[in-house]
What does this fold into?
Amino acid sequence: MRISLLDRARTRSGETDSDAVMATVERAVHAENLGFHRFWTAEHHAVPGIAGAAPTLLLAAIGARTRGIRLGTGGIMVPNHSPLVIAEQALLLEALYPGRVDIGLGGSLGFTAPVRRALGRTVLRAGEYAADIEEIRSYLDGRADITVRPRVEPPPVFLLAGRNGLSLAAELGLPAVIGGPLIRDAERIDAYFRNFRPSPFTPDPYLMVSVDISVAATTEHARDLLLPEAWAYADSRDVGEFRALRPIEEVRRLVNSTGSTKKIDAVHAWMDTAVAGTPDQVANSLTDLLDRTGASEILASVSTYDRDDVSSIDEFLSSLRNESTNTFVSNASIGARP
It folds into this structure.
């Protein structure tokens, strides 16, 4: 079972954004020691509770502290940047850490209207996203009419695929990352494999499944560990921001005291999208998820208040990997399904 980690640099109540960023770096070092395949970081602009706004900068720091684990953007939000700048940052990372870089691209606009205005794009018109991705790829592989520096081997590109993004990934011959409701959309998943057009870096379709994971001695405790993130998600609908994670007992009191049935339903709905349970239950669920989707890799998001719990879950997930399929792969074999 090939497993990698996605880290959003979530803050906890009582700590600074700097604390959260440094914790992400330390977690990446630990992830490498545990044998994880990749460590990806995300892009979130002006979102309280999330300290990571520039994944390429954060990965540069992580690369300096690690030696072999692959470093990925999960992802760079294409509408927020010039394609040229995205390509330059990707190639610079590849120059610093040859053969270790993954460029995950996504199509989300800023979290709120003021953020979207500040980033310079408030609407994504039909065809713009695909055109931007193709422009980025042309800079990376040297097909553009200008030569982007540094000139190094292009890192592989992944597409963070929403409902329509999966068909775009198939059309462009890109490995895809899916999560949320799309994991259960067998029709779109089957279409990705069926309609995939081979590309130089990805001769065969390659699918990663991104999912929140919680593991504990009992199912009840595993679900409790999800409460801080689930509450932050439900609360964001009212306050317009993802607040710092709070201790489990504090969140339980908030859940029990809220008079909003809608918010309680949102908490449980978020928790139901995660894989949570005892070690055996989680192992079986992940195996079933890979079998059901045809995916080759799990991209695990582990987020709860206590960082010791995060470390414990990381250690469990590392024990699931199969040594024969979780080795570090080269760019040329990135699409090979184990």
Observations:
- The first strand starts at residue 3 and ends at 7.
